[in-house]
Amino acid sequence: MESLPDAVVQYIFSFMNNARDVAVCNCVSKRWKDSLPYIKSLYFPRNSFDNHSGIDHPDTAVWKMISSVVKLEELVVYSPFSSIGLASWMLLVGSSLKHLELRMDNLAEYQNCTESPSKLECISTAKNLESLKLWGVLMMNSPKWDAFPKLQSLEIVGAKLEDPALTAALQACPNLKNLLLLGCEGVRSVLIELPSLEQCKLDFYGVGNYSLTLTSPKIEFLEVQGCSWISVRETACLRSLSISNNAGRVYMVDFGKLAALGFLSIRGVQWCWNAISKMLQLASEVKHLYMKVEFTGDFDNLQPFPEIDFVDFFNSHPKLQKFDVHGAMFAALCQKNSLKNVQSGFVIPCLEEVVITVRSPLNAEQKISTLESLLKYGKVIKSMAIRILQMRSSHSSADDFFDEICRFQRMNHNTVRIE
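The line above is the sequence of F-box domain-containing protein; the predicted structure tokens follow.
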């Protein structure tokens, strides 16, 4: 290191970010100490001040370290801090920061939401942020943010939100390309209008009865968990779509044309059949389809899927390459009349991989017939996985069905496997 030019030493230290490493290097030599102001990123782990015995408060210790940096571009703080401490840091480096990640830790402290300045308010000083990630946020009141014109990525993980507060926060980030709200609760109706948004993941915690209206003409990847009513009309660029609701029901989906959609995943305990059939109809160009919905029916009426014609389904999805189907959907394809109208020349042209989860031995003959038909008409199928999951039956039919599955696998051992 002693033989290296100062510029090279400074370049090496610019890749250092752990605050403890920086503090240690600061004590090695004057040359190293003089090079540390050129680091670009600082990271304070959760336990940074667990054994703190100095005269300075942790907030002050962080302030002293960042004050020694010429142009800090990234700051990650997982260790506890106060709003006053955060405000002092932002006054120092707010203009140069591009990436900010903070563990807020104020979910259970309502007084922190009303103190002035609040932690959220302090962030507004960093006008040039390109990415912002917040953990454990209490956002009951609208944050006093003017605007983050350069912000392209916003991630909020673990938050209690009110509808107006979330709306105001998103309005302050007009040029977002990536939005992630993970493990959030409290909102009821989510309205997102972001013209540049390309990737969006929304995970709402609770009873699963939220509504979502998304207006983003450039959206390419969308993942939604916990919403019962979903409206996304501008979908010309949408390539990947995942909708799930683990706690509630999906009543309504309103999408535009899904001509670019290559991947569709729908999951949940109960979907209204109109929502399922509409998604299947719109996703006619899909290449990978994942379906794991247990029941259909409106409100509290849990009903099985209606019969789905095997030929019509695959004719309606001619580009399907991978089909991952669970229980109820597979049973709907295995109805008695599903294979009666197979016309000569019918093929499943692009299907290469099938994953089927079976949970019941009922209608065993039709299920075996459907498995055989998939191999017969799927001329390019390379792999079929059959998963026998939680099959409960005191009747011998479960054993007989499993024997038939094993026989089917032995006859097609190059393609079929049992998991």
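Note on the example: The first strand starts at residue 41 and ends at 44. The chain has a mean pLDDT of 90.
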